[in-house]
Protein: DUF4102 domain-containing protein
Organism: Bradyrhizobium uaiense
Amino acid sequence: MPKIAKELTPLAVSRLKHPEPANPSDPDSGGEFNAYFAVGGVAGLMLQITPKGGRSWVLRTTVATKRRNMGLGSYPEITLEAARNAARNAKASVRDGRDPIIERKAARAALEAEQKRGLTFTDALKVYLPTKLAALGSEKNRKALEATLNTYAKPELGRMLVNDISVQDVLRVVSPIWNDRTQTAMRLRAEIENVLAWATVHGHRSGDNPARWDGNLALTLPRPSKVAGTENHPAIALTDATSWFAAVRKRDGTAAKALEFIALNASRSGEVRGMQWSEYDAKAKIWTVPAARMKARKEHRIPLSDEAIAIIEKQPHLDESDYVFASPSGGMLTDAAISAAMKRMTKDDGKQWIDPKNGRPAVPHGLRSTFRDWAGEKTTYPNEMAELALAHTVGDKVEAAYRRGDMIEKRRHMMQDWANFLYGNRAASDNVIDMTTATKKRAKH
């Protein structure tokens, strides 16, 4: 029968020391080994002491037919009582036919794997966001997206693990602004969904996406169309278009000329600011905007009116710059420079040009709405032609598949008529309606 070790007290255990070598001057006389002391209470529980004084608990036991030494932690961090309890639990596992060492290794591996998968929303954003921002064509849009996520998403979700984010967490972010700032809330929800989808693909979370709309948030939040309409950018009223354009033509500076060019082509600011000389075909009278600078990520050809060509031809061709409307340093004009040029424009009475529909000062992007109003109210050009001029998607996918052309020559006549209208010239095109004559005809009938 094996000898039962004496059950030591905590004080006795604290006094245990590594044995001195028999002959301190002789390195072979002992001492360079780990000493083991049975502390009793649980068979096989030992205090291990290294030659340098390090102390730890070891349980010597047999698992099946294999002798095992199982570490239970260091002393005195693990007290004598805690070591005895851990030893009893380990021996109970052995009696149940399990190997506590293998179980502990498996648990440690699972924890390490979980820690590697564990990623906070903020950390996920740091990896996901650069790719997303690079895909946005406008610096203004990039800053707006970052500001939205920093203002609304990060304060609530930033420190949370992506795998722990639930539907309730997403609602806590978007619900407060859903009714009042619906467009912002919709974009915010979509970006949260994208971040969590990215995290799922990269193994940081599993299960349904809590920011998904269909069959998920749609069951909780009111439809966007029910709580807020789409708010257009403030535009120049059609009745003010000719006088506004005359005013912008009087202004000097690259930003003013770019603004004039934006109006003539119903283009977006980023498309014009990034325009390079290589995109301009003087012979064909066409400006080709590459897909990378288009919102729809599709190349867009623009037939240029005579007035638009005249603006291009008068722009200085700087040797150190590829831009048609270059900034003073030779780089791209900022969106703020275009906006400032329009903001500085006032009527003869000193007041700004106001959109009569919403009472707000008109902005460069609103010129596209002015063009659309002109095409719809003052011409007989087909709606789809005006939409193509604005680089909007026309028709459904089937219709788009059959319509491979972009009506470039037909649009050329429309853009020249638009230029004639802005310049205050009476157009000869049959597609332009003489509103004075039309009014007189209706009066006679």
